[in-house]
Amino acid sequence: xxxxxxxxxxxxxxxxLIAIIAILVFLLFIGGLVAFLMLSSDExxxxxxxxxxxxxGQPAPSPKQRSNDFFNVGPMYPMEPFLVNLLSExxxxxxxxxxxxxxSEETLTPEIxxxxxxxxxxxxxxxxxxxxxxxxxIKGKERLKDEVVTKINxxxxxxxxxxxxxxxxxxx
Length: 172
Prior knowledge:
GO cellular component, one term: bacterial-type flagellum basal body
Number of helices: 5
CATH architecture of the largest domain: 2-Layer Sandwich
Number of strands: 4
Helix content: 40-55%
Shape: elongated
Function: Controls the rotational direction of flagella during chemotaxis.
Transmembrane segments: 15-39
Largest sheet: 4 strands, antiparallel
Structural class: alpha+beta
Strand content: 15-25%
CATH topology of the largest domain: Tetrahydropterin Synthase, Chain A
Subcellular location: Cell membrane
Number of domains: 2
Region (Disordered): 49-69
CATH class of the largest domain: Alpha Beta
Order of helices and strands: HEEEHHHHE
């Protein structure tokens, strides 16, 4: 009689162990499926869609992100140096930088020339709104480039800024 009770306990323990393993495998499968769906949707969002050419007289569409195509660098527009106060409690941090704007096409140069004071103002306001911590890391500089490109592109009609390149960057 005692042996039958032991056998039933073993069978009950085995069934419980199998049920726990089955639940864990099921949860792993669901987690993998969710991860796959999330990653595949990110790739689809990151994949550029085909753009149609703008009709004559219409502004060229500007991309949402900076260009990372370093093999087909567009025309460069050098800017004069910028010296701004960085946002800080004591006001004792300065940023001196020089940058070049990569244009989508050469025909954008006259518009940049005409709007140079506006573009300088955009860059100065953007730079001076940053703290030392914002611009001291590589990621911070990349975010700063993205912000400058986005803000300048909002004002352009004949093309767009593909990228911004810092040729001088000193923080004190």
